[in-house]
């Protein structure tokens, strides 16, 4: 009787854990090489990370354009990179 109770309790615990594992995964993906991946972040967290990455790219693009604009301005006036007029 005791072993039957322990077996039943173990089965309930195992079933509960098995049911909770897929529910905790927020996103399941399959990568380019066929390997599965599990993302435990919520959709809001993933969107915040995506927005943060887009802002970072925009900022980097802005500074890159600014550098090229300054370089072109000096090249049009005949200056070399150090700012000397030859």
TrEMBL record:
Give a yes or no for keyword Signal in this entry.
yes
Name the domain of life this protein comes from: Bacteria
Provide ranges: composition bias, Basic and acidic residues. Answer: 36-67
- Renumbered to this chain, the signal peptide range is 1-25
* Keywords, in A-Z order: Signal
Region: Disordered; residue ranges are: 21-67
Query: What is the designated name of this protein?
Result: Uncharacterized protein
- Which organism is the protein's source? Methylorubrum zatmanii
């Amino acid at each position: 009787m005791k072993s039957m109770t322990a077996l039943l309790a173990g089965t309930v615990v195992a079933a509960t854990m098995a049911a909770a594992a897929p529910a905790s995964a927020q996103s399941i993906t399959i990568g380019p090489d066929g390997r599965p991946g599990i993302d435990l972040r919520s959709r809001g967290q993933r969107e915040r990370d995506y927005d943060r990455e887009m802002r970072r790219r925009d900022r980097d693009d802005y500074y890159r354009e600014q550098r090229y604009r300054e370089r072109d301005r000096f090249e049009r006036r005949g200056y070399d990179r150090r700012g000397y007029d030859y």
